[in-house]
Amino acid sequence: MKDVVSRRALLFGKSGPRGLDDIIRPPWAVDAGLFAGKCTGCAACVDACPENILILDMHKKAKVDFSQGECTFCTDCVTSCKDGALVMADINRPWSLQVSIEGTCLAMKGVECRICDDQCDPRAIRFRITPGGVSLPQLDQDVCTGCGACVAPCPVGALQIMPEQVREGA
After folding, report:
1. How many angstroms separate the CA atoms of 149 and 102, rounded?
2. How far is residue 157's CA from residue 27's CA, in Å, rounded to a whole number?
3. How far apart are CA 122 and CA 45, in angstroms?
4. pLDDT digits 0-9 by tens, 10-43
5. In contact, 103 and 111? CB cutoff 8 Å
6. CATH of the domain at 30
7. Same domain, residue pair 102 and 71
8. Which pTM was predicted?
């Protein structure tokens, strides 16, 4: 059975399971409820993003599309936002995202692949040596910045990034 989304959840951009907002908003976005009211869909942040990872969703609200690349946390989106939807309260915490490596991961299927490790600058993804087998990925959530550099290069789409509350509530 498909998840049913209430009209209220849909209105506020909360389309995920149990009405939680599983859309990744730009870094330094205000709380999801406030964001829905503050973001006017002017696309200034979309135009300002040098990595071209920001797009407008079906409600004309800014969101991140990691299939296009990674976030470098340049702050151009925040600087361009005149609506108050993006506010840099803490330079060191642009967002609260959780990354997971799903079962489709080639290494978990016994195929040597370390593309995510190669892309991860903060070294949040490392491969544990397995004697007589393929090394397996290990993710350190405390080191992960949620930049998304690992997402697009994965040949099987095994890396998923979601807002923390979605992972916790799931």
Report:
1. 16
2. 22
3. 25
4. 444 444 443 335 799 999 999 988 999 999 999 9
5. no
6. 3.30.70.20
7. no
8. 0.80
